[in-house]
Write a structure and sequence with these properties.
It contains five helices and two strands, in the order αααβααβ. With about 190 residues, the protein is mainly α. The chain has a two-stranded antiparallel sheet.
Length: about 190
Amino acid sequence: GMVAALLLLLVSIRALRPVGDLALAVRRLAAGDYSEVTMRSSPELADLSEALNSMAATLRERETQQERRSEEMMRTERLAVVGRMASVVAHEVRNPLNSIALNVDLLHEMLAVPGRDPGRALEVLRAVQGEVDRLAEITEEYLRFGRMPKGVMAICDLGRVVRETRDFMEGEFAAAGIEVLTELPEAPLRVRT
């Protein structure tokens, strides 16, 4: 009787081993491992392994589609940000252009009257040059943002990013009556982005 029980136990263990392998395959699938499952010990287990493989293929496809949707959403958000930034840049460019136009008119008036002080004309020219430099800086900053390459994981200083963004948006915040207060550590705040 004991031998029969031992034989029955060994046969049961051998029969249940594929079920344990199947359970392991399901756990791997749940963890994101979509590798193929092959079990041919019985037609039922073969059918189950085919079903698991089909499920893995479906999950892999859904994951790929989700990644594509995520990338598309990032592109859409980026375009929205570029649109908002275009509005900010237009506002930032308008002020220096008005100043340049006024200073050029003033310079024309000064040059039309003989014997005027050339020192004042030089001051006006310096003011015009300062506004032109400011426009060039605004344009370059906007173009730099527009040329940003596809994101690559890297270490960056989060504090610097926050400060630069705050400084860039300062005119927009002021126009909207928004006061931005930041408390950032002096040491670089490194994060992987």
